[in-house]
Design goal:
alpha/beta, 16 helices, 26% strand, seven-stranded mixed beta sheet, elongated
């Protein structure tokens, strides 16, 4: 019943109807009656007395009704009535206009070459043009995370049109249900009765998840919990056009690693898919570096309908810094999936601090001897990794600060202050690799370094395992687990020798059951009842390190983990459960020892830098010392400036773009151009989900399911939408009718009062 009032709390005013009754009862005071001689001539006859009492009762009821009418009018009652709409045509509305920004809307028609996205924007203009001056409007971009384009809902329709005209090109995928949910949340603060959510889309099935009953049950709950449930309209921007032409898609790029070095080869792999065609075709795949096409690197691929082909490119960079590597297909009717990009960070050398826990007078017997030799041998005259070796007793936080990677090799123990310093070192965006051996103090590692899962280590060490007599010369790395991109070159079928190394001793470990993310962390999940922050929005809470999921990247044939990694804040920590030297394994004698150690560090470094991420993953850039971060800005794929927050700690200053929701290339550049040698220019790639390339529209059965229980209505055009908006299901407030009755009742009350006090 209360759902038919916009301000139901004003109904408490109905208690005021008792005021006339109370006033009447208080006015009935008892007086002493004194009979006198002429009284008999002044007494009224019984019929006159009854008439006066009836008029008094009617006046009391009128006064009670007047108060009730005022309370009801302020409660703003409403009804669903089409004929009342004609009487209340000036009533304002709240309009949420949702524009599907998935790249399937970039489909270009054969007839006029206009994209569906352009038609959707034109439809949005027509809808805004038809609004009355008092209508309140908000525009939402439907992407993987919905984004409100205006700071707040507005009656300035010109401002809304400008926001619509400045929409970025369609890219990525769209969660249309999440966009509708955001619209419902925004309308909860509305004071208008008429609330409409209008979705402009091409009706591709990908964004609706019609089979997810739980998702739609949550949407229904949101509608039922709304005091005034909005009407939801789905407008077909594709005008029923079925897409049957051929489409070519280039998948997300796979890099062996994100870190490269000057004149060192970097490999990139992807797949090209062909759908919708009828016969075999030949397509060209082009390589672009920083937007410039490398003609000699073009590859031709022959594709069958419904088929795919893997393509592989190799390139050598000649300058340091971040570079955007792109693979591009020739133009087709759906350009949104014709390009894939990745960022490669080219460096001169990586300084690494090796902390040796078993220093010996004979250098060849030191724990880090083989690792140091491997790093110096990796780049010949210009090594890619420059190691610095110190003993465990020399380790201090000040010694750590100049390095990006620290390797703790069989270090017996660390005091609590040093562990806390290393945790902050990792959380600020750096890397720590811990390798074990026979000098480890187990209890110290379990209490101080692991600390029930919240410490530095990604897992708890248990006990040293030895190969049994039955396993002699048999415990090796599981070749089948070498499936990560950086490990695939070491597989046996590719000639790798990593799986040939024998492991005689190792520490058994226990991984935590779940990630231990602390609330208040920048990476902690947003509660389901809160909308996600908009692009670039900075957090309100202070920076708090978080602990992520422990991942086993390498395993032994016994099933025991060999390499475990985990994110810790902005950095990465890894644990190798065996040693770096030849005491516990034969890895240093294998051909893959040198490249394995290099690729391991490059992989850990890439995880900490995160230059190629998914939508919603923060972009974090470590700022070199001496650079003023306030002189720089982040620009999104449309070259618009987006706000970022500055992170500062004793180890590292960083710039963070918290929530990039638009796929494409982001750039961190100076606000004012500077000489090349004095400036920093870095790129990131937010990757596109390629599933939108499967162009399948909603079936009639799926549309019936979505529109069931009058949840939403599908319309084919803007004129049909306007007609439906004025249908019999329209709503109208009737407070103005109550005020008419109030005025009429007030007139009757005044006339009746004057009648009762006139002389007899």
């Amino acid at each position: 019943m209360l759902n038919f009032f916009l301000n139901p709390w004003m109904l408490v005013g109905l208690a005021g109807v008792l005021l006339p009754v109370i006033a009447h009862l208080l006015s009935r005071k008892k007086y002493d009656v004194v009979d006198w001689g002429a009284m008999q001539f002044l007494e009224l006859d019984p019929s006159a007395k009854r008439k006066i009492r009836l008029e008094e009762l009617l006046l009391l009821m009128l006064r009670m009704s007047l108060i009730a009418f005022v309370a009801l009018a302020f409660a703003r009652p409403w009804v669903g009535s089409g004929w009342l709409m004609g009487l209340a045509a000036v009533e304002s509305r709240d309009i949420i206009l949702i524009v599907d920004q998935s790249y399937s809307l970039g489909w270009e028609s054969d007839g006029d070459g206009q994209s569906i996205h352009s038609r959707a924007i034109q439809m949005g203009r027509e809808i805004l043009q038809g609004l009355t001056p008092g209508d309140v409007v908000q525009i939402i971009e439907a992407r993987e995370q919905p984004l409100a384009l205006l700071p707040h809902s507005t009656r300035d329709h010109y401002l809304a049109k400008e926001a619509l005209n400045e929409l970025l090109p369609a890219s990525g995928t769209a969660d249309l249900v999440a966009a509708i949910q955001k619209g419902i949340q925004l309308l909860a603060a509305s004071s208008n009765l008429r609330r409409e959510i209008i979705v402009l889309t091409d009706l591709q099935a990908r964004g609706w998840n019609s089979a997810d009953t739980g998702l739609w049950a949550r949407l229904d709950d949101s509608l039922h919990q709304s005091s005034i449930a909005p009407r939801i309209w789905i407008v077909d921007a594709a005008a029923g056009e079925e897409i049957t032409a051929a489409n070519f898609t280039i998948e997300r790029l796979q890099l062996l690693r994100e870190v490269a070095f000057v004149n060192s080869p970097i490999n990139v792999t992807t797949k090209v898919r062909y759908t919708g065609g009828e016969g075999p075709v030949t397509r060209q795949v082009h390589l672009e570096i920083d937007g410039v096409r490398v003609d000699e690197k073009t590859i031709q691929v022959k594709l069958q309908p419904g088929g795919e082909m893997t393509v592989d490119f190799e390139h050598r960079f000649e300058t340091v810094g971040s570079h955007v590597l792109s693979l591009v297909l020739d133009h087709d009717p759906l350009p949104g999936d014709n390009r894939a990009e990745a960022v490669v960070n080219v460096r001169e050398a990586i300084p690494v601090l090796l902390v040796d826990g078993d220093r010996q007078p004979d250098p060849t017997r030191c724990e880090t001897y083989f690792a140091q030799a491997a790093f110096l041998a990796g780049g010949a005259e210009h090594p890619w990794i420059i190691p610095t070796v110190i003993g465990a007793e020399e380790l201090t936080i000040d010694r750590v600060k100049p390095f990006g990677i620290v390797i703790l090799a069989n270090v017996p123990t660390l005091d609590e202050s040093l562990v806390e310093g290393l945790k902050k070192f990792v959380a600020s965006g750096h890397t720590v690799l811990v390798t074990l051996g026979d000098r480890i103090h187990r209890e110290d590692y379990r209490t101080t370094l692991y600390d029930v899962g919240l410490g530095l280590l990604p897992c708890r060490i248990e006990s040293i395992a030895n190969e049994s007599e039955q396993q002699k010369r048999g415990v090796r790395i599981q070749n089948s687990r070498l499936d990560l991109p950086w490990l695939k070159p070491f597989r046996a079928e590719r000639g790798g020798t990593l799986a040939d190394a024998r492991w005689s001793r190792w520490w058994q470990v226990t991984l935590p059951a779940a990630p231990l993310i602390q609330q208040g962390s920048p990476d902690a999940p947003v509660p389901s009842d809160q909308p996600p922050p908009d692009e670039g929005e900075a957090p309100d809470s202070a920076e708090t390190p978080n602990v992520g999921t422990s991942i086993t990247e390498l395993s032994l044939t016994t099933g025991d983990p060999l390499l475990v990694t985990r994110r810790n804040g902005r950095g990465t920590v890894a644990l190798l459960t065996s040693s770096l030297d030849a005491d516990w394994n034969t890895l240093p004698a294998k051909q893959d020892y040198v490249p394995f150690l290099h690729e391991l560090l490059f992989s850990l470094l890439s995880q900490s830098e995160g230059r190629n991420v998914n939508v919603g993953t923060p972009l974090i850039l470590n700022i070199p010392a001496g650079l003023n971060v306030d002189e720089y800005e982040f620009r999104n794929p449309a070259d618009k400036v987006v706000p970022f927050d500055k992170l500062t700690d004793p180890f590292q200053t960083a710039a963070r773009l918290r929530n990039p929701i638009v796929p494409g290339v982001y750039r961190f550049t100076p606000k004012v151009p500077k000489p090349q040698e004095q400036s920093l220019s870095e790129e990131f790639v937010v990757n596109v989900d390629r599933q939108e390339s499967t162009l399948t529209r909603l079936t009639d059965a799926e549309r019936d399911t979505l529109s069931g229980d009058d949840r939403m209505k599908f319309v084919a055009s803007v004129p049909e939408l306007r007609k439906q908006l004025l249908s019999d299901a329209a709503r109208a407030e009737i407070w103005w009718l109550i005020l008419y009755v109030f005025v009429a009742s007030l007139g009757i009350e005044t006339w009746l009062t004057r009648r009762m006090i006139r002389p007899l």
